[in-house]
């Protein structure tokens, strides 16, 4: 039977009609950008091409032992020295190894402000007041970023390189704003294993909006089709895709990483879950739908400590604040793993239970949806660095993966 995980149950009955550009920008990233030369811009923001909504994730490396260190250095990013020598980074006031950093991500909706403090580093202040540093790890942070675009009502559309940005203060979008990019893409993706996910779409780690274009060749002609004109995309082998347009026409495209096995992945953000990324060889089809109201800035709280009860294989249990894999300790952080070769990043705020399933996998259940057996990550296998629980009395208990039975989280 087909497994269906919808953004909301009502999504199953939405009429499949093309979205109207500029109908709702309340779910879009919005803020005030202060440039390196002091000039100030305000408007809707598109980050690194593939993030533009509050649900989208800023990816990077979290400095594991510097999160919430309010005494950290805040020197000029243009004068700070940094040396890397045999995997050890020497910088400013201290030395730390690559092991002190771990891949992480956070929804833009949790962030109050972002300050550029290095060539590939940012200081984040969250809505909760917590502070942390992210560095590199993706094109989201650093000189490899594919641009930061702000749609300023007075100054027009302005694009910034990394070195042009000093800081950004995020805020709720004013009502009624129109965007030159159109509406955010939304739809139902079906995999070759017949699993189905409905949510906000990012195609080929690149295209997000109805005015973005899907490229390819048809009958020896180069075609550029706006996503707003497409009703469905179906995989046609490793090197092509069949498009069905809203006007009823169909075509087969090839010769582009948009429509072949060099596609970098189709990502779906599912509310109440997290991000699902499907590679081309697992992709079957994507049907675009009319988008519902998107999560707005006020829907995000900046996170809180992960709380719950850990049960061990010997029948014991301990309750308190949890640090998972000696790393994730806040509800805005993500547990990652693979399900049927589908990459899943599940926000801890959405996880109800994790049950160990042997040495190499775990069954992860979310509050408002099904359970998935995940593997392929140290979050969910024997390479887990330990589950640490701080009790109400201040005692820290360390549970090894082999001793774990399950964790039941507090909502």
Descriptive account of the structure:
0% of the residues lie in helices and 47% in strands. With 411 residues, it is mostly beta strands. The strands form 5 sheets. Strands 1, 15, 16, 19, 20, 21, 22, 23, 24, 27 and 28 form an 11-stranded mixed sheet that branches. The chain has a 10-stranded antiparallel sheet with strand order 8-4-11-10-9-14-2-3-12-13, with no helix packed on it.
| Spatial separation of the terminal alpha carbons | 30 Å
Q: What sort of overall outline do the alpha carbons produce when their principal axes are compared?
A: globular
Indicate the mean pLDDT.
88
Number of helices: 0
Instruction: List segments where confidence is low: pLDDT < 50 over at least 5 consecutive residues.
Output: 1-22, 65-98
The tally of beta strands, per DSSP, is 34
Structural class assignment: mainly beta
Biggest sheet, open or closed, and with what strands and sense?
Answer: 11 strands, mixed
The percentage helix is: under 10%
Task: Please give the radius of gyration in angstroms.
Answer: 22 Å
């Amino acid at each position: 039977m087909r497994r269906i995980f919808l953004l909301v149950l009502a999504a199953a009955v939405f009429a499949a009609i093309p979205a109207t550009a500029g109908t709702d920008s309340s779910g879009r990233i919005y803020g005030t950008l202060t440039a390196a030369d002091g000039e100030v811009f305000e408007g809707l923001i598109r980050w690194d091409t593939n993030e533009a909504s509050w649900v989208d994730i800023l990816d990077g490396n979290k400095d594991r032992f510097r999160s919430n260190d309010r005494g950290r250095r805040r020197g000029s990013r243009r004068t700070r020295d940094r040396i890397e020598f045999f995997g050890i980074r020497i910088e400013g006031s201290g030395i730390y190894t690559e092991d002190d950093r771990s891949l992480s991500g956070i929804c833009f909706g949790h962030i109050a402000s972002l300050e550029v403090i290095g060539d590939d580093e940012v200081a984040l202040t969250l809505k909760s007041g917590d502070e942390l540093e992210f560095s590199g790890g993706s094109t989201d942070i650093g000189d490899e970023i594919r641009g930061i675009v702000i749609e300023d009502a007075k100054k027009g559309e302005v694009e910034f390189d990394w070195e042009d940005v000093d800081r950004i203060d995020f805020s709720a979008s004013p009502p009624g704003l129109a965007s030159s990019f159109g509406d955010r893409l939304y739809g139902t993706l079906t995999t070759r294993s017949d699993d189905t996910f409905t949510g906000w779409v990012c195609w080929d780690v690149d295209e997000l909006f109805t005015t973005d274009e899907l490229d390819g060749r048809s009958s020896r002609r180069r075609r550029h089709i706006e996503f707003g004109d497409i009703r469905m995309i179906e995989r046609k082998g490793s090197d092509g895709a069949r498009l069905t347009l809203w006007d009823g026409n169909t075509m087969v495209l090839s010769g582009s990483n948009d429509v072949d096995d060099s596609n970098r992945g189709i990502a779906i953000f599912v509310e109440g879950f997290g991000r699902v990324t499907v590679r081309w060889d697992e992709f079957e089809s994507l049907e675009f739908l009319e988008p519902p109201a998107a999560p707005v800035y006020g829907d995000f709280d900046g996170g809180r400590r992960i709380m719950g009860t850990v049960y061990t294989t010997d029948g014991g249990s301990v309750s308190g604040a949890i640090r998972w894999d000696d790393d994730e300790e806040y509800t805005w952080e993500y547990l990652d793993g693979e399900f049927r070769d589908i990459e899943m990043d599940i926000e801890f705020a959405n996880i109800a239970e994790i049950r160990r399933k042997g040495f190499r996998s775990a069954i992860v259940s979310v509050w408002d949806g099904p359970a998935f057996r995940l593997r392929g990550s140290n979050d969910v296998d024997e390479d887990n660095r330990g589950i640490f629980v701080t009790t109400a009395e201040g005692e820290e208990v360390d549970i090894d993966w082999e001793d774990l039975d399950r964790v039941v989280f507090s909502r």
